[in-house]
TrEMBL record:
Protein name in the entry: phosphoserine transaminase
EC numbers on record: 2.6.1.52
Residue ranges crossing the lipid bilayer per the database entry: none
Organism of derivation: Saccharomycopsis crataegensis
Cofactor(s) the record lists: pyridoxal 5'-phosphate
Amino acid sequence: TRPKAAYFGAGPALLPTSVLQQASIDLITYLSNPVGVGEISHRSKDAINIIDSTKAHLSEILNIPDTHEVFFLQGGGTTGFSSVATNLLASFAAKTGKKGQPAYAITGTWSKKSYEEAARLGLEPQVATNGINSKFTGIAPVDQWKKLDPETTPYIYYCDNETVNGVEFHAPPVEATCDGKIPLVSDMSSNFLSKKIDVSKFGLIFAGAQKNVGIAGITIYIIRKDLIPQVGTEELNKLNIPITPIAFHYPTVVKNNSAYNTIPIFTVHVLNLVLKNLLANGGLAAQEKENVEKAQLLYGVLDKHPQLFNLPVAKDSRSKMNVVFTINGEGKEEEFVKKAGEQELSGLKGHRSVGGIRASIYNAIDLETVGKLTKFIEEFASA
Ligand code: PMP
């Protein structure tokens, strides 16, 4: 076991100790096998059970309708950037015979990277909104975004929580979909299962596991079934749409129940243990309630000292997962990190691209631990 850690890193992030204890037992020997879960065949009954059980738990937690399919891909969020672009272009081509130009809402570092990947792949993406001029400190109201044409827009992409900038959508931008005619694609890598969502509103959701729900190596996808058609290579070549590498080709992966090639089954098993733990602790409703309380507590104490703490993000777009702030005064931020470290509060340094302080309070950080941090912040402010 280990002492309770007050670790606020942005990801990979803290996981419940009980989950890791079970995972470490299963890594040595799993069920009736003479070997551990990382050593069994990905075609074995036990491995298939892990995949099916994980999918079932996700469906239960998120109330996923029959219209949608869950699958897993190796890799992380970045794998999603490329695979979303090529797969969804192909599915748009299957429906319309056209290439189209996907639209991106750029609200921070990660949606910007995803947009850039679509451009790098030659898709000439549209910009639905771009917050770069205001340094990604808020989200423009959806009615001020570019008006999109469903005839030529294969999907509208956004990042539900921008991990670096601390910017989160408090409601998904469904108004941008032209009454659902344009599939809504969401990167939920850093707030997946932190709150209730209505899956039926989405064409595709993807999330790297390593923040709220597991360890790095696996990415969860939830896709509307009509968006996974098989499209011939010849047709894609004709339309100048990049061919998706086979390991990331959604129709192939779905057809093979996420085990077209060797799925990292230990990583899926850890994900499944996290899901079981979430269900045993009251599911998404309880988790969301606690996340709201944690964020209120932390923002509350920071807002109380505006001369010292500067919170750049507009209140209606503040992230409940990544609380980003700077501290006024020469050397104050270094002092903050150092003093926090002395109280065993770690992982608080801001992302290298933006500096400042970032406290990531993902699902595994409980209210008590956030309480410890806020107490330290109070002391720091009154010193
Ligand atoms: N999207 C978001 C919202 C992220 O926070 C990150 C990583 N922090 C990524 C995508 C990229 O994920 P990965 O490093 O797993 O490729």
